Amino acid sequence: MADNPTSDMQEATPAKRKGVKRRAFLIGGVAVVGAGLFGISIADSNAAKSAKASVEAAGGHSFATWLKIGEDDSITIYSPHTDIGQGSNTGLAQMLAEELDAAWDQVRVVSAPAEPAFANVGLGRAFLADMTGQPAIINGIPQSFLSFIARQMNLQMTGGSTALRFTGRVTFQNVGAATRLALIETAAKRLDVPADELTTQDSHVIHSKSGRALRYGELAAEAATLSLDNAPKLKDPSQYRIMRQSMQRLDIPAKVDGSAQYGMDFSVPEMRVATIMAAPVRGGKLTSVDTAPALAVKGVEKVIKLDDAVAVVAKGYWPAISGLRALTPEFSDGGNGGISTASIFKAQDDLIAKGEADSTAGDGDVQAGLGEKPIEATYQVPFLHHAMMEPFALTAHFKDGKLNIWGGMQDPLATKMMAVDVSGLDADDVTFHPMMIGGSFGRRLPMYMEIVAQVTKLAMQLPYPVKLIWSREEEVAQGAYRPQSSAALQASLTKEKRITAYRNDYAQPESAESETVFPYTLPAVSRRHFAHVSNQQTGAWRSVNSTQQGFYNESFMDELAHAAGEDPVVFRRNHLKAGSRHLRVLDEVAARSGWGSPLPAGTGRGVALVESFRTIVAHVIEASVGDDGMPKVHKVTTVVDAGSIVNPDAAMAQIEGGTIMGLSSAIGEAITLENGAVQQSNLADYPLLKMAGAPLVMDIHFLNSGADMGGIGEPGVPPAAPALANALFAATGKRVRNLPILTQAKA
Amino acid sequence: MAIQTSINGKPVALAAEPDTPLLWVIREELGLTGTKFGCGVAACGACTVHVNGEPTRSCSVPVSEVAGKSITTIEGLKSADGTLHAVQQAWISAQVPQCGYCQSGQIMAAVALIEKTGSPSDAQIDEAMTNICRCGTYPRIRKAIHAATGQAAKAAKPAEGAA
Fold first, then answer.
1. Which H/E stretch holds residue A184?
2. Closest C-alpha to A560, from A504, A620, A633
3. Between the N and C ends of chain A, which has fewer C-beta atoms within 10 Å?
4. Which residues contact A329 (CB under 8 A, 6 or more apart)?
């Protein structure tokens, strides 16, 4: 792989079609194809440097994406990200349109067929033919390179609140700005005036001296033949009129009238519907199944045995699930039949007690600082189910040597490549068509997409298209859960109520170190990871390791404050650096929440402060415990420092949703195991927060600190659980150390 | 024998087996995919439709039970000229949906609540709106219901005056 992605861009001419380097089209500095289609290099731009370093840490290069301007002034932005409802596509469009000076009502954003455009020569050809009429331009590009680029793109998409921070800031703003310059250059020539006499507004280039104006649509064809500036000057934020505005989300109208098409909704003629049951004990195999009871159900056509699962194919979902339920398949347990929630906690506790950490971070002499009698507390959190509202549904059709797959996945390339691997087909013969996604929260990441392999296996042996739908029961039983995790925390205090040393020992599959930002300045800190892996598949659950780490640290800080006999806000403040962003967020949330003011009897206030994805969030929660033992959240006051915000209302929605998801998990959610299998069966026994449990008052404030843009989709989650637990302690004097709270309320 | 019913004001004869849940008839036989499958056990409400005006979780109602009844789905909320229902408009104004998957059901539940109560209180909203939204759009759903009822009240006045 070449180190410099723009080194061969001059080769990118239609005359050299066969040998043309694909990346020259994608990331070369020249708009190489077609009227109105722009590609731009971001590799050398100043803004690219930080993100480039981040992207290139895993090897390879940054990339650009596209914009199309129609002769009718329509502006189409091809987003490489899958908008799961967080508004990232609207935000990306705002960033590009801002720098382009586009008329916002002409802007439309569509999902770039990122996977084929970057990796699949076959569909890439179709995509380009659609836009450029030059179908052969991308032949002959090494698959490995394309795969890598697409993977980078998708890693950005799924790597955690990064769409606007990386793709937007690095690529889309530059694409918009450089395109605007090309349009000005074209207009200058056509009007025969110096470029510096021209301004742009609402998709027009304006020459105010002569009162003339040209539409972007009439300039686009010629502008697209120009070289684009690799490092265009971006606007000063004071000039913004689209960014930092609460533009209505572009995806919403189709979501209120039922017209939005999710993977679940896809349909083609002759399509059959399948549903599946995998080994209830993960790691087990299908040992036997009598298929007759399913085949006796009207509408059932086939029972297909896979290595570790059995699937029923029918004319519709109802006969398919009825057929599946009629079966009594037998599965082995893969030797995992002894695993339970209790056995995992015991194993984790034993590892921590043994003290042989798999990795250690922090500084200072913690052992000395802890002294003889440190304050200690242990915490436990359970596996969590993502509970995306749309269960997995993928449709696949194998015909004439080609495999097509339709559905909603966060990483189109990985989806395709998995289907390539499973089917044994050439990459050119496999196409994935991304559709709208009904929630993900980390569940639809490439590492945990076993449904792709399943539907591919079914389609390869069926003469018709098949839509594989996971029942909710299957979703709950076969998750990629937030890990069950334990922690033992220790600290010691001086007489002056200052922490001398702080230790956080935690056991779970992976280290949380790369995500952990411990904001407090202490003489000695140690974080030790004890690796414990069970038979369960664990994955990224909205805000990833910051959920449990936020709960551990912010609960324990509260315990230390109470041990010191100091107000929890004051205690935190005394351990934060003067002038720090964290301190400002804490002070703001204390002031806005009326911290310290009287509350009704039985109601308590709790605070928590967590940084994740480079955004600092503090919640103050007012809560009580109802007669039924259920915690009741009355009010949440939130202060967020995400640096700067592209779309304030969409950002607000993310913080609202993240906070509620955090509260939901803290109050009621748990996946538990017995005999190696998940005990919960559906949403009826996996209680998610509903309207009545959501806080009636959510008072959310953003600080425009000017710091680098942080994520917004995830950081609302982590402080929610500890702020609630701390509020309940203030209300009742009972400390919550194990989640969910509901389990303890019942106990 | 075909089951006779009415969907969004149109009479239909349904060929489905009588035990098939209404949800799957709506989605697979009629091709109206705005009504969603979320859990199959009436726990989440993504499949909410109106059966004779009552909000109903269609995943758990056999189609045989709706014979002769009138069913409205999300696709049937718009007026004949394509104008969105006031609740749908309020949903856009409040920018309610995130992933959007549960929102057809939320909107159908909200429309039924408003038709029943006129201008529901927070307590009535808490009691009636039991559909799950994993994205956590509850505060905006509440806001949109309040806004929609304000709007409905205003819209009703000129009509009264005209009559």
1. helix A173-191
2. A504
3. C
4. A277, A286, A288, A289, A310
Taking CA–CA distances from A693, the nearest residue in chain B reads B126
Does B82 contact chain A (CB < 8 Å)? no
Contact B38 A471 (CB under 8 A): no
Nearest-CA distance from A547 to chain B in Å?
16
**Confidence label for A231 from pLDDT (cuts 50, 70 and 90):** confident
> Which tens digits make up the pLDDT trace of A494-547?
999 999 999 999 999 999 998 889 999 999 999 999 999 999 999 889 999 999
Q: Are A441 and A386 in contact (CB under 8 A)?
A: yes
What are the CB-based long-range contacts (under 8 Å, 24+) for A302-309?
A: A302/A462, A303/A327, A304/A274, A304/A457, A304/A458, A304/A461, A306/A276, A306/A454, A306/A457, A308/A278, A308/A279, A308/A284, A309/A276, A309/A277, A309/A278, A309/A279, A309/A454
Inspect the interface and report whether the beta carbons of A389 and B32 lie closer than 8 Å. no
CB contact under 8 Å between B21 and A251, yes or no, is no
The predicted model scores a pTM of 0.87
| pLDDT 10s digits, A403-426 | 999 999 877 777 888 899 999 999
Instruction: Output the CA torsion A216→A222→A227→A231 (10° steps).
Output: -10
- CA–CA separation, A455 and A467 (whole Å): 8
Which DSSP string do the residues of A685-735 spell out, in sequence order? GS----GGGS-SEEEEEE----PPP---SSTTSTTHHHHHHHHHHHHHSPP
Vertex A550 angle, CA A549 and A556, to 5°: 90
Q: Of A657, A658, A683, which is closest to B43 when you measure between CB atoms?
A: A683
Search chain A and give the residue with CA nearest B29: A316
ipTM tops 0.90 = yes
Tokens of A194: 């110096």
Radius of gyration of chain B (CA): 16
Does B139 sit within 8 Å of A695, measured CB to CB? yes
Does B138 contact A273 at a Cβ distance shorter than 8 Å?
no
